[in-house]
Amino acid sequence: MKPIRAALVGVGAMNRIVAGLLPEKGVEIVGAVGRSKAGQDLGEVLELGHRLGISVTTDAGAMYASARPDIALVATSSFMTGQYAVLADCARHGVNAITIGEELLHPWHTAPERTRELDALARRHGVTLAGGGFQDFFLVHQLAGMLGTMNRLDRLSGQQTFNVDDYGAEVARDQQVGAGVADFARWRQSDERPPGFGLPILAAIAAASDLTVTGTGFEIRPEVAERATPCRSLGITVGPGDLIGFTTVDTVTTEEGPVLVMELSGRIYQPGETDRFAWTASGDPDVRVVNPGVDTLRTTCTQMVNRIPDVINAAPGFVGPAGLPPLRYRARPFAEYLLERPRLAVN
Predict the structure, then answer these.
(1) Which domains does the chain have, with CATH numbers?
(2) For 227-261, how does the pLDDT look when each residue is reduced to its tens digit (9 = 90+)?
(3) How far apart are CA 207 and CA 260, in angstroms?
(4) pTM value?
(5) Using CA atoms in the order 85, 90, 92, 96, what is the torsion angle rounded to 10 degrees?
(6) Per-residue CA distances from 108 to 112, 119, 161, 277 (Å)
(7) Looking at residue 41, what DSSP letter applies?
(8) Is the dihedral of CA 298, 301, 305, 307 positive or negative?
(9) Distance separating alpha carbons of residues 192 and 195, to the nearest angstrom
(10) Which Gene3D superfamilies does the protein's record reference (predicted)?
């Protein structure tokens, strides 16, 4: 049985972890795309301690045509604006893809036109494009299962934090680390501000729970340094009074009545600070889930990797976790879990 062939799109902190996981799952890395490091060996770029014999390229199309990967593992930007062309390129070359970009978890409400375009493109070329990552189990399937224990849901409220330094310079810049409060206020009101991460998460939970979204609300506030705070991903020290990140509060109302709320804080952690993850569902009965000290960095990557067979097996189109089966552990090489699926010719 031939191994699954994978390409890495993005050669930063996240795909460094992914590259170490794939051999254990019988997945062969056959190509890599990066905005920089072109011509360098992927193993050296990812600091794996050995060469892989694969050169990083900026020409994704040429790599897909020559390497013919079964799936692309995308770890680049967080938002549709930076992901659309990447995923469209995958579809046009007949390559399945899964991304950990936060908005792409469930972008039907934040970027409906672009999502419809990607869905149609994927269907036309017979491939699956999927959103996933940390939110897959911990924020979609786990919470949907928790809500399934209730007789009546009135309100779902969640609080979560993440350390921006764990996710590289792109995320740190997205979280406005180092910005002044006045600059942040202008950015918050401008068209440059992308959608928050909370709405795709809440919309995905709603979809997994057969709830119909009727309205959304959004608040944002700065997280300000009280003392000089180093940011290792950007290589700077944030001065007192400047931003170490920000917190968003997203609210979703539904036709069926339940209200979903999520407070998400992405900032540079202080010494001793760890990830916070707590969700409370109010109704009959009240239920709560708390996951203290979850390794969000590594589980973001392990969940993307463990989704490889599900994405390849899924029907063509754009899907999120709510459109995939619950995550499961697979002990054998991933190729053994693949189903036969006819592919359409690339136009």
Answers:
(1) 4-132+307-337 (3.40.50.720), 135-294 (3.30.360)
(2) 999 999 999 999 999 999 999 999 999 999 999 99
(3) 12
(4) 0.88
(5) -140
(6) 5, 10, 24, 25
(7) B
(8) positive
(9) 10
(10) NAD(P)-binding Rossmann-like Domain
